[in-house]
Every structure is written in C-alpha cells, then in structure tokens.
User: What shape does this take?
Amino acid sequence: MDPRPTYDYAQANVLKRTIRRTAGWKPLSLFYARTLHLIDKLVFRLTRGRTTFSGWLAGLPVAWLTTTGAKSGAERTSPVLAIPCGDGRLVVIASNYGQRNNPSWYHNICANPRARIQFDGDEQEMVARVLEGDERERWYERGIEIYPGWVQYRKRAPRQIPVIELSVPS
Assistant: This one.
C-alpha cells in the first residue's frame, strides 16, 4: 500500500468534497481569493508547518511556492494547490480563482523559473516549465480530479489558465 496521501476528489469525505465543489462558485471563490492565503498562512504558522486551513478543511495538497519578484527581485511566497506527480515533480495551476489576470507568482516564475517549494514537510529548489498543448490539458484534467473548482475557473477566466511543472534542477 502506498503511504502517500491521495488527494482525489472521489476519495475525499462528504465535507471535503462539498468544500472543494462549492469553492468554484463565484461568490465563494472571490471571497477565498481575498482571504484564504491569509488564513492558510496563519494556520501554517500555528501548526508549525504541519498543515494549512485548505489542507486541513478540504484535504487539498497545498504547497508554499517562493518565487523571485519579476520587477522587485524580492522573494515572494504564496500558497498554491500542488498536483504531486509521484517522481519529485509537482504541477501547479495558475487559475487565480478564475479571475481576469494570472496570479503574480506566475509572472514571477516566467521571469525567473527558479523557485523554492515547501511541500509535504520537504523544502527544495525547483525549476518551472510552462506546459502547453496535450501535456497542459492532461495535467489540467488531472487537477480537476483533485479540485473540481478548476472547472468553473476555466469557464470564468477570459484567458487560458497556465499549467506549470516544477521539477528538481538537473
């Protein structure tokens, strides 16, 4: 039996599935866009890095992505939903809750693809690559298996939502 947690929507309990599905609704996603990162940071600190609010309540795989500011050069850390690939790689989706613009961390990672990620108790340097075509579509669909809110975000966003692979530098 694989000791790693599964994050699939179908295997989550009723409460976690309800939270994941309703988070895609526009009023809730707008609320979360403005508050969830703050709550996640607070819970992460209070639990000494063991979990976030999103991870605890909805059973979502949250990673802390640290990028270098595209303009400022300063480090910025953001909680992001991560899709574990099982081989040390992670995939993140720059949905920004289905809003008009990409999240700022996406612009940072495009300007400087080197990033640091903290996930599942480990912290490591990673390199980002924006996925395209069939590879992008395959990982977006895999993301929906974890977090169905991405279906609504895709419908609302007036842009193609970027999908990014993070891997250990070679």
